[in-house]
Amino acid sequence: KRVCYVTLNKTYDSLKELFVKKKVNVSNIVFIDAISKTIKKMSDNTKDCYFCSSPGVLTELSLVITKMLKQNFEYVIFDSLTNLMVYTKKAPVAMFVSSLVNKIKTSKTKAVFYALSMKEQAELIQETSMFVDKVVEMGK
């Protein structure tokens, strides 16, 4: 399956290395890396990775994800909603998620949004869960 993986906490290089080590076929994965440019100078985008300036720049992130949705990916994996709260407040994050979910629903793409279940993020998780079709809580 073709996958667009949005990462807000691990760099493209470290994720790709981890996936290869775990024997995940990365040939059908395109990454959107919103963290690398916050920690080091990056070259331009590659054929399998688009670099955003920061997880806090929601407009840029939205534009890149929208561009990816036009490329008919089967899945978008968003890792993770709770990481956005490090960079911006709850209200803009909730608006971003609502807008993104609506764009995804008009495409043929399915999406998975990860969020850490933390007391500090409970409000965000509760609010954004209203926008999605299903919430699955993972056990320990």
What does this protein structure show overall?
Helix 3 packs parallel to helix 5 and helix 5 (90-105) runs parallel beside helix 6. The chain is α/β, with parallel strands linked by helices and 140 residues long. It has helices spanning 12-21, 36-39, 58-69, 81-84, 90-105, 122-128, and strands at 3-7, 29-33, 49-51, 75-79, 110-114. It has a 5-stranded parallel sheet with strand order 3-2-1-4-5.
Topology readout:
Layout: E1 3-7, H1 12-21, E2 29-33, H2 36-39, E3 49-51, H3 58-69, E4 75-79, H4 81-84, H5 90-105, E5 110-114, H6 122-128
Parallel strand pairs: 1-2, 1-4, 2-3, 4-5
Number of strands: 5
Distance between the termini: 27 Å
| H-E order | EHEHEHEHHEH
Largest pleated sheet = 5 strands, parallel
Q: Which value, in Å, is the CA radius of gyration?
A: 15 Å
Tell me what portion of residues adopts beta-strand conformation: 15-25%
Shape: globular
The overall pLDDT average reads 89
Structure classification: alpha/beta
Kindly state the percentage of residues in helix: 25-40%
Uncertain regions spanning at least 5 consecutive residues: none
State the helix count: 6
Strand order of the largest sheet: 3-2-1-4-5
Oligomer: single chain
Summarize the structure.
This protein is of the alpha/beta class and 140 residues long. The chain contains six helices and five strands.
Keywords:
140 residues; alpha/beta; single chain; five-stranded parallel sheet; 38% helix; 6 helices
